[in-house]
Write a structure and sequence with these properties.
Two copies of one chain form a homodimer. Chain A contains 18 helices and 26 strands. Chain A has 669 residues and is an alpha+beta fold. In chain A, the strands form seven sheets. Chain A has a six-stranded mixed sheet, with helices on both faces.
């Protein structure tokens, strides 16, 4: 446990060997000498009737001298055993505790709860190297290599063809002598067909190896520090992407490169500096030496990906949006000026297409549409929405140009998500009066004590998720028609409907300033949601499906919107509401999976190769879907699942503005 | 021809394909498009009765349109054909001309005449890459990779798992666009189990690739610039090793490192600077761009090897003389600050032992004792003599501390080999009068016109090979006894024998200054030659042999000494004189073989693993052999081969000084 793998072994088999035979990667830095303590296990006792197993403490060999020595010198919790030094004597249910941590100083943070099987690209191997011998004048590295092969090949690892990083070749001899010929080798091997490389060497037993998983967003960079030996996330940090000073959105950054000599270099340095700052932060938080970081995985959209790697993103700014490289990128961290161990390696996940990046690939890896039968729609909303749709049989992907409206830009009262911003809205369909909630407060505006909290921050605007709600509530209250027109006739009924130039507005918040939703605001959201929906619809057409089983919203925007309102506005197709979930930074989780398990790297490489890429700009149907999706919820389908929980307004005859197109009357079931 | 390989093919087989099937690496950069001209051949016509072949021009397909187009645009000598565009129609003897050179500007120097079969680690592959396509958004690198696999896998190459150097990933896109999607890829692959790497990319057809083979001696650095496409050496240069200013011999350089902080760094920079100067020289001589240098091989003794690679050589200065690495070293040239193509690769040959370096390995590769049945003794004389002895069954190696006497140091009238130094000596056994020749003149001192030439340079000393001759001639003239004592009784007979403190000297040259050979000089040479001989003898004991079939002197010293005198002095065991050869810079030839053919890399790697290393300091017999070898020629064997050409003096009773040991009378057959 927790992998649940089972097998039969002869009595007397060391538990560590049994685990390895089952493909469970129990770590053992010392190679079974009973000194590293990394291979700790616990026996679950009891009658596991379902599996016809009675697991008891008598079915494991008695606590032995190696374990006693370890318990005396270090610290072995009651009930814990060393799997290298204890053998199977009968039926056993074996638990691998997630918290096996030797360095007690390490601060551990609550993980996201997701179990990731470990099979990292880095192995620590303790080894006792024969001293140099004039009779057999093999070089120090050659004897180290031979001993690693000898000691570790039997442990399921294959260190043949081991290479050595040049920086290490020049420092190898003093390390071996400082350690009195006892050293811990850090070996990197990513993939069966690649040569293993000796990337770090420590005198004596070295029991720590860390990795970094990082999502480079255009707005925010998020970084996780993970123990490669236990799989635990031990620190997380984030920062604004400093490239924002060169351009708020992606295209303006590409323009900056095109217009300014040295612009690409400046943005590359900016992001790498920020990464180095974050590395310093997570290390200092967790009291870890940056030199113990040996592996790193990175994800990001194509433009972030290119700028991070030092590649000019200009080609991504114009059709045909050619990536310099779409497959995974592997290289030493030192080539990217990252301040970690000089031998550390970097793995960058593959990009799916010119507008669907390694972040979308990582989110796919995390949510796994390709691992299940159910059809999953995975959406990451930003300036571009990245959309993946599929199941284990087939997967398609596209991006859709939603523009920045969902992030609060282009909205008259829009603002970034910050304390004081309106994030929740309810409108009474009878009175058309509104109630709101703001970021930083748990109270609704009609509850006692709201005033005080509101004064603390000041109410200055509506954030992205609030805009979705207010437009959706306006629609549900009948203030907006199916066609997105604010119904001016309601001005007779409520003074919240006010004239604004030649159109109408809705007064959402009577304060200083007064916040109104204008007809232009409604149009901006309509355009954004139509683009998103048209992209989704295009992929559904490609898959020849009429409905999806599951919807996942990745990214910050998705974390805060209420799925119900997203559906009312027609951002997404009809779906059982309990199957619509926000999954937060799924890209970061995917990066962590690739960090901890090489099999996940191969999995996403293969999945990305198989994903069918749809370029919305080339699809004639996209424009048709876009126009149809302008309506609320939209004109092309019914919403039986949504209508179970929300009463959608009767479709009225259109009033006010008209785009002059003939309309079909929306049918109801 | 010249490989001599033969095979049977169906009529219509392109000659290029047939060559490849036979394992003959005919180059074709364009992949058979008939545009690179690298695959030129000539047909030898005639009746090759020995092989029952009648080769005629009718047995090759007629001159075709591809060949005509190439001949029109470029220059195809009469009789030349393109093997990619001509097919076998009957029996053919096919010649691969050594001079296939596309760049007519290239200065070609006489090669050393040795034919090296080509199978380089670098391949140039012309490829036409599909343009980017929004429907299939593979990255530029990914499409390039796929096309290389598609076009070139059928040509006996396997570019699966192709990786790309990071410096190239950042410059890939403009190169592809400058070449209008037609590019030449330079791919490095050294060994079947290693991933091929894209290391350079050129717009359009690029028809040049060069390599450097370099021998880093402690005194002299020798460099060859070689065309990787034709195998021709096109420039050679050499320079003094600038590390000499830190210490004349190897041990003084190690001491410098131990005594001076930053000393290792300073010597590493010095040698790399010298290499960069040499690269500039050979490139400018051959009118080649340094950026067209894609592969480099290096050899050197262990201390030169370590300092070049940036490894502290301190461990090599004290027992057990531990090498940091003994196996081959492969790395990018950029990590060694070498100013060649940023993707160029470096291959450093393996070292045999702490005192027997990659230079000895390279000399072994060049002379090939391990490839033959005859027992070969391979000696490279320097401050340490590196000695390899063996045949295809078994090979042993050792080094012996000869000291610098053979190089003219520690000799009262010794000097480095330079114009004016005495290099040849004859002594009349009757009169004891001497004749000499000097470097820079073809005349003997008793010939007319010698005076003028001698005045031009001035006669200031005796070089290493001259010292061997004068001591040997003194012995043959009876001036020195078997025990190495100058016979003072001869002062009665000749005024060339003069008293010097309590011993005697021989006046070699009466001039200004007068050059004399003192008893101390004789002792220094005795010690040096005894060390060399004892080392050789030890290896012969290990091999359980009493005689060798062939002797090879490698290095500068060996190039100038007369084998007969080396044998008279007892530097080497008895051997047929025609089988004793000086082979010049055999280490440089070995480096060139490793540069041009990967099979030679594998060959020397395997050979070095199999060579038995003998540490003379640990062998009790060494001291015994050393003492016995002090005598002239020596006391332990007879010299039947030498006595066929030289009359050795009768052994006299000892006179003058004595080391006090009992002596056996030397037996004559």
């Amino acid at each position: 446990m927790p992998s649940g793998k089972r097998g039969r072994f002869s009595p007397g088999t060391p538990i560590l060997d049994a685990a390895r035979e089952l493909g469970v990667y129990v770590e053992s830095v010392c190679g079974g000498r009973g000194i590293c303590g990394r291979c700790q296990i616990e026996i679950q006792t009891g009658n596991f009737a379902k599996h016809a197993i009675v697991s008891s403490a008598e079915n494991i060999s008695p606590f032995g001298p190696k374990e006693q020595r370890y318990a005396d010198k270090r610290d072995l919790k009651p009930g814990r055993r060393l799997s290298c030094s204890s053998t199977i004597q009968g039926d056993l249910v074996v638990d691998i505790p997630a918290d096996v941590q030797v360095n007690a100083q390490v601060v551990r943070k609550a993980d996201d709860g997701r179990h990731i099987d470990r099979n990292p690209a880095i192995h620590l191997c303790y080894v006792e190297v024969p001293e140099p011998d004039m009779h057999n004048p093999l070089g120090d590295f050659d004897r180290l290599k031979a001993q690693l092969e000898k000691d570790w090949t039997s442990k399921g690892l294959n260190w043949q063809n081991l290479t050595i990083d040049h920086h290490l070749l020049t420092s190898l001899q003093p390390i071996l002598r400082n350690g009195k010929w006892k050293v811990t080798a850090a070996i990197h091997q990513d993939g069966e067909n690649t040569s293993p490389a000796l990337i770090a060497l420590y005198p004596g037993l070295h029991n720590e190896a860390y990795g970094i998983a990082c999502d480079i967003g255009s707005t925010t960079i998020a970084m996780h520090l993970v123990s490669l030996l236990s799989g635990t996330t031990i620190a997380t940090s984030g920062t604004a992407n400093p490239q924002i000073r060169f351009g708020e959105d992606l295209m303006s950054r590409v323009s900056y490169v095109m217009m300014n000599p040295g612009g690409r270099e400046a943005m590359t340095i900016a992001v790498r500096d920020a990464l180095n700052d974050l590395i310093g932060q997570v290390c200092s938080e967790a009291k870890v030496e940056a030199s113990d970081i040996l592996d790193m995985t990175f994800v990001g959209n194509p433009i972030m990906h290119h700028l991070f790697l030092g590649i000019d993103p200009t080609e991504l700014g114009v059709a045909p949006f050619a990536l310099a490289v779409s497959s995974r990128v592997q290289l030493p961290a030192s080539q990217l000026d990252l301040q970690v161990n000089p031998g550390a390696r970097v793995y960058v996940l593959p990009c799916i297409a010119g507008h669907v990046g390694a972040d979308a690939a990582a989110a796919t890896l995390a949510e796994g549409p390709h691992r299940q039968d159910d059809l999953m729609l995975l959406v990451d909303v930003g300036t571009n929405a990245e959309i993946v749709l599929g199941n284990k049989t087939r997967t398609v992907a596209a991006s859709s140009p939603t523009g920045p409206a969902f992030e609060g830009a282009e909205i008259s009262c829009g603002q970034r998500a910050a304390p004081g911003a309106i994030e929740r809205v309810r409108i009474d369909p009878q009175t058309l009066e509104s109630r709101v909630r703001i970021i930083g407060s748990e109270k609704w505006s009609d509850e006692e004590g709201f005033e005080e909290e509101a004064q603390k921050f000041g109410i200055t605007g509506v954030c992205g998720s609030g805009i979705i709600e207010v437009i959706a509530e306006m629609f549900l209250a009948g203030i907006i028609t199916t066609d997105g027109v604010i119904d001016g006739s309601l001005a007779e009924k409520s003074d919240r409907i006010i004239a604004n130039d030649r159109t109408w507005s809705y007064v959402l918040w009577r304060g200083e300033p007064q916040l109104t939703i204008t007809q232009t605001d409604v149009r901006a959201i309509q355009l954004a949601k139509a683009a998103l929906y048209a992209g989704i619809r295009l992929l559904m057409d490609k898959m020849e499906i009429a409905a999806v089983d599951q919807i996942r919203f990745a990214g910050a925007f998705g974390s805060f919107i209420d799925p119900k309102y997203a559906m009312v506005l027609g951002l997404i197709p009809d779906c059982q509401l309990e199957n619509v979930k926000a999954v937060g930074n799924a890209a970061g989780v995917g990066a962590k999976m690739a960090l901890l398990n090489r099999d996940h790297r191969r999995e996403i490489e293969q999945t990305v190769r198989q994903i069918e890429k749809i370029e919305t700009a080339l699809e004639p149907d996209f424009q048709r879907h876009f126009v149809n999706a302008m309506a609320l919820p939209n004109k092309v389908e019914s919403f039986p699942e949504l209508e179970k929980v929300v009463k959608l307004p009767e479709v009225k005859e259109q009033t006010g503005e008209d785009d002059g197109r003939p309309r079909r009357r929306r049918r109801r079931p």
